[in-house]
Amino acid sequence: MTNINSPLKTLLSTSNSVKNRLTRDITLLVFLLISVFLIFSYFYSKQIQNEITQAIISSSKEQVIDKNHRIFDPISNNLSLSRKWAELEKLNTSKNNVFNKRFIPIMETLPQISSVILATSEGDEYFFTREDDNWLSRHTNPKEYGQNSVKWQLWSSNNKLIKEWQANSDYAPHKRPWYQLGLTTNNEFPIKWTTPYSFYTQQIPGVTGVTHWKDENNITYVLAFDVTLSEIAQSLSSSNSTKKDISYLISPNGEIILPPGNLPLTKGTPTKGGLFIPGEDKTNYIIFDSVNNWLTSQSKLDQAISFSRNGKLWWYKIFALDTYHNSIYAGVIVPETELFDIINDNIKFILSGITILIIMTLIMVNVLVKKYAHQLKDVPKTSISSDDFTNEVYQLLRLGESETLEFKSTMRKNLKTGKNGKEIEIAWLKGLVGFMNTHGGILLIGVDDDANILGIDEDEFENEDKILLHFKNLLNQHIGLEFSNLINLIINDIEGKTILVIECQRAERPTFLYNKNTEDFYIRSGPSSVKLSISKVLRYVQNRY
């Protein structure tokens, strides 16, 4: 038998000596925690006020960002898909029936989209929006209707034309800010968002998402989604992590997006919401005070700031929403009285907890010892005893593949092609990374999926030294030698055939598989290694470590 990197063996024992040590350690830990709690509570109110403030504001911020993503990600995805569809369909402003059939379902599914616009570099535009229970379109075509005239059409809910008429208008789509912004989209930023403004036709506060392309005749098309913000502002204001904190949306220059029914207004309507610009007039609204404070103090983004109002202290933070590439900001406000309430509640909780801990220490220690002794028996097996190698391998073969056990027929040979294949090596390296990112495990090489022992003769290594060298090189190239202390390779014979046993311990930090300039993160799910997306990796790492 050949070993490298003698592993840390986790020997589980239920002997009295282990129980006694466990009892002693837990008792010391409990009394240590009590002492720390006593010292901590003494300085608690003065030392952690800022931390609690940051935690509450950050919690409110994360909830605002999360809800914003849930609202806007489907809109952005539909805009991106619609652009591709429009290119393939060769959509133009005259294909109103095709346009309507495409976007009526989208606008019904995503009511935040108030209108959809298609404009061209030739001055044409097709504008489509809701009109009570029907749909309203405006077609701008200087060649067909003249420079100062547009064609309006009213459509039923099932896309039947109800009536149409022409009207005078000096509206020029190519002069609108959203059109100019749309021309700046590129492969890196295929979708861009305007800063908040009041829509030209509907006089509703919102933002416009834009994207553009060119057809074979070099005509530029800009596709735009108008998205109202007043109801979104109302939705975000209900994202509060506590009872008294306040959330709101603002533009980079300080215009506040107000939910419907809020006054005073400078742009918009009382029923549909508006944009309010804080100024000299003093209003009895805490949101205006925080924005005024932020504007006058010229504070940085994402910074917790306090201000006083009517003898009461408030904390707020204003930050950019990345969905819009910094074109929209959000703010959260928390009253300091709420912070003190939380501090006082926590002090009472800690003092009560200390009293209970003192009374219950001996009972807790006894319960924990029994619980741990039971749970330790169920710890996943991640190593094989050298004294009983054959029997332990047979036991693993009987168990079959699982979250902590995997079989591979070869180390490098593709049995279908008869040639060495990189994909074969990557396949079992994924398993090692998955083990380290989950609970650890054992990989048997030279065993097929049905637990038949094949051996590794097909890999055609000259000797064991070549196997060890190849193994180390693969670890260095695809995982990193810094993890080598967690991985142990055993080369041994069973039934006259050489197999490889790779013992893998759980890692205390994220482990990635490096391959072709990519870094992939795997975990074990049942008998498989599953690659996680970036967002899932972040959540998994946060919860695990």
Structure characterization notes:
With 545 residues, the protein is of the alpha+beta class. Among the domains are: 139 residues, Beta-Lactamase (2-Layer Sandwich); 165 residues, Methyltransferase, Cobalt-precorrin-4 Transmethylase, Domain 2. The chain has twelve helices and 27 strands. Strand 15 and strand 16 form a beta hairpin. The longest helix is centred in the first third of the chain and has 41 residues. The radius of gyration is 33 Å and the shape is flat.
Level-2 CATH architecture of the domain at 380-544 = 2-Layer Sandwich
- Count of individual helical segments: 12
CATH topology of the domain at 380-544: Methyltransferase, Cobalt-precorrin-4 Transmethylase, Domain 2
CATH class of the domain at 380-544: Alpha Beta
> What is the end-to-end distance?
35 Å
Number of strands: 27
Low-confidence stretches: 4-18, 262-274, 277-284, 374-378
Q: What's the overall average pLDDT, rounded?
A: 80
Helix content: 25-40%
- Structural class of the secondary elements? alpha+beta
Q: Largest sheet, described in full?
A: 9 strands, antiparallel
The fraction of residues assigned to DSSP E strands is: 25-35%
Spell out the CATH superfamily of the domain at 380-544.
Schlafen, AAA domain
Shape: flat
Rg, rounded, reads 33 Å
